[in-house]
Specification:
The protein is α/β, with parallel strands linked by helices. It contains 13 helices and 18 strands.
């Protein structure tokens, strides 16, 4: 009945796929022998190895449209599905900040081979490893093959102050700041030097992932990437968000409330640095009865969303221009899958609206008919309990990149240890070392008061 209603309401369609005029060629194993290899175009790889991208996505009939799809991300009960446990390690960065890495399977799981692919996840605006959109991928990806999974490892990079990670400096994170993921990859690479690392980013994390891959080019420590719900042109999408009264009241204020609550939670840290501009600006923000995303970015993010330079920015719009990822798409040099929906209420301007000339030969860009922002809910096997469509194409992509694609060896500059910090040859400003804290994580405590799924 649900499928019939979806069909009648016109919510069934295969994603539209966009490629550069000439796509790159990817080396794949054609058999179990490494010596048996073939090189095929990215477009042919998707046709062969990612059939779900050519199949129909049908929204759950009772969640039609981007607003309802997005709303269900927030109000849906996902506590009993896709349960994932993690082992957390805290990393101290060279500037005194702290990021949290959540590893799964946990240390109690059976030993995996040293070359087992590792999925490196970047979460959304104020999320973390607990988010249902993250677990929807990691639960099957990190289950053993005998249980229908990929048998991979995964590491979720929890940004400064998110998901229970302490904030130890007044510097936060932002959509454009890539040095924290770059730092995390130093540590992950040191742990798994023989494993291919595969990036997956959601929303804000997708923007960071895109910018990292473009900045690193052929030296990327990630062998491939996948971006879901990326905001791309932050300035254009910010203007669209502000232009609609409904979007301002619901989405902009919802995201602003999350960011404000996060800042409030770490108020003691800011107060320990009384002379910083962000600490001086914070009281006025906290006194507001309601805060939009734009107001938070104008007051806080443009000042403290990354290191100096380039922070602080004169205005939030200057920050949006700098942090946008649509302009760097041509610079990506590893296989990269981007998935957006055509009715995302938060991300309404997509790079492919201007044509495919901005796409790297390594990029495949999929746009679904419906799905909202990080929703993509379709009918599940149990009535009233939808499943996320993107799980299938993302798992197919990860399998193709981690198990089928031939790796040319570890990329990135050699690592060294200086005063206990893992660092990269030729760069002294970033590095990390493990500090006390962390432990076993089942869900995330202390995240009450934040809207999930955004």
């Amino acid at each position: 009945m649900g499928s019939l209603l979806s069909y009648l309401f016109g919510l069934r369609a295969a994603p539209k796929l966009f490629y550069a005029p000439k796509t790159a060629f990817v080396p794949l194993q054609s058999s179990s022998k490494i010596s048996d290899a073939e090189s095929i175009s990215l477009e042919e790889l998707v046709e062969r190895r990612c059939p779900s991208l050519h199949d129909v996505f049908a929204q759950a009939w009772w969640l039609p449209g981007g607003n309802l799809q997005t709303a269900y991300c927030v109000v849906g009960d996902f506590s009993q599905v896709d349960q994932v446990e993690y082992d957390r390690k805290l990393l101290r960065t060279k500037d005194g900040g702290t990021i949290g890495l959540d590893f799964t399977p946990s240390a109690t799981e059976p030993h995996l081979r040293s070359d087992t692919p590792v999925i490196v996840v970047l979460h959304g605006l104020t999320g973390g490893s607990h988010e249902s959109y993250v677990r929807a991928i990691l639960a099957p990806a990190c289950s053993p093959p005998e249980r229908g999974g990929l048998g991979y490892r995964a590491v979720v990079v929890n940004f400064r102050g998110c998901a229970g990670v302490p904030l130890t400096t007044p510097q936060l994170y932002s959509a454009g700041y890539t040095d924290d993921i770059r730092t995390a990859l130093l540590y992950i690479s040191s742990l798994y030097p023989e494993a291919p690392l595969l990036g997956v980013g959601f929303s804000l994390g997708a923007n960071i992932l895109t910018r990292y891959l473009a900045q690193e080019g052929e030296q990327s420590r990630l062998a491939a990437g996948c971006a879901l719900g990326c905001p791309w042109d932050l300035l254009a999408n910010s203007k669209r968000l502000k232009a609609s009264w409904f979007h301002r009241q619901v989405y902009s204020k919802g995201m602003g409330a999350n960011l404000k609550a996060l800042a409030q939670r770490h108020l003691a840290t800011f107060e320990a640095f009384p002379d910083t501009e962000v600490t001086k600006a914070l009281p006025g923000l906290l006194q507001q009865s309601q805060t939009t995303l734009g107001q938070f970015d104008e007051t806080i993010t443009r000042l403290a969303g990354g290191s100096s330079p380039p922070f602080p920015f004169p205005t939030a719009n200057d920050y949006y221009v700098w942090a946008s990822s649509h302009v760097v798409l041509p610079d990506i040099k590893v296989p990269f899958l981007a998935i957006n929906s055509d009715d995302d209420p938060i991300v309404s301007v997509l790079p492919v609206h201007a044509g495919t000339s901005t796409l790297s030969p390594w990029v495949v860009f999929a746009v679904t008919k419906g799905g909202g922002h990080l929703g993509w809910f379709e009918e599940g096997s149990v009535p009233g309990h939808p499943r996320r469509w993107y799980r299938r194409p993302v798992l197919e992509w990860l399998h193709a990149m981690g198990s089928d694609m031939l790796s040319a060896g570890r990329k990135g500059k050699p690592l060294r240890e200086v005063d206990g910090f893992i660092m990269e040859e030729g760069r002294d400003d970033i590095g990390c070392k493990v500090i006390e804290g962390g432990g076993h994580v089942v869900g995330v405590e202390g995240e009450g008061g934040l809207l999930a799924g955004l």
